[in-house]
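Hi V.,

You were right to ask for the full record rather than a summary. Here it is.
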Amino acid sequence: METSFTGGSPNYEHMSNRLFIGGLSWDTDDAGLSQAFSRFGTVSDAKVILDRDTGRSRGFGFVTLGDATQAQTAQREMDGSTLDDRQIRVNEAQDRNR
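Predicted structure:
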């Protein structure tokens, strides 16, 4: 019988290498986000999401690291840390259902 994981602590065994970063300062840009996560490995993409009307940060972004192990370490060490004077949240990015 197979058991599926649906909640509680993150299941790092099947974690992807893409992270959701919430609580970003309006001053944080793509380069700053990339730099903050580069100590955990290769950052292949770092994107702060901007409001399409104002061009200002919406306060969240995404970082893609080289592999799931790097992402796991980054999530564990960066969740709750401070970036540009704001406490950030770091979680595994979820696929968006359209």
